[in-house]
Every structure is written in C-alpha cells, then in structure tokens.
Amino acid sequence: MDINFIFKIAAVGIIVAVLNTLLVRSGRDDQAMLTTLAGVVVVLMMLVPQIRELFTTVKDLFDL
User: Fold this and answer.
1) Mean pLDDT, to the nearest integer, of 2-24?
2) How far apart are CA 58 and CA 23, in angstroms?
3) Burial of residue 35 (number of CB atoms within 10 Å: 0-12, 13-18, 19+)
4) Residue 11 confidence (pLDDT) above 80
5) Range 31-44 average pLDDT
6) pLDDT at 31 over 70
7) 21 lies in which domain range?
8) 24: exposed, middle or buried (C-beta count within 10 Å: 0-12, 13-18, 19+)?
9) Mind spelling out the 3-state secondary structure of the chain?
C-alpha cells in the first residue's frame, strides 16, 4: 500500500464531509445521511482488495 491510496481515502472523506455539511445546512438531512453512507461504501470497496492482498500475504508467509 502506498501513500496515494491513503490520499484517495482522505479525498473521499473530505468530499463527503463537505457535501454532508452543505446538505445539512440546506435542510436535507436524509440526503446527507445517504451521502455519508455512500462514502463509507465507496471506501470499503476500495479497501476490500487491499485486505484480500493482506490475507494472501499472511497465508503465503505461514504456508497455510
């Protein structure tokens, strides 16, 4: 994992935070919650391949 991956996750977090703030201030609380949920799903989808690679590395390391 390189630093660019961490920056991508941080960028998604910043965008979601700004959108959430704008939507809450305009009175659209439901859409703000959905935006936050979508941001969490996007980050989890980005993390799944990294976790798979981690498990593969551990499996190869211990010859399981």
Assistant:
1) 95
2) 43
3) buried
4) yes
5) 96
6) yes
7) 3-61
8) middle
9) CCHHHHHHHHHHHHHHHHHHHHHHHCCCHHHHHHHHHHHHHHHHHHHHHHHHHHHHHHHHHCCC
Q: What would you report as the CA-atom Rg of the chain, rounded to the nearest whole angstrom? A: 16
Give the pLDDT score at 1: 66
**How many separate domains does the chain show?**
1
Say how far apart CA 24 and CA 39 lie, in whole Å.
16
Q: Is 28 left (phi over 0), alpha (psi -120 to 50) or beta?
A: beta
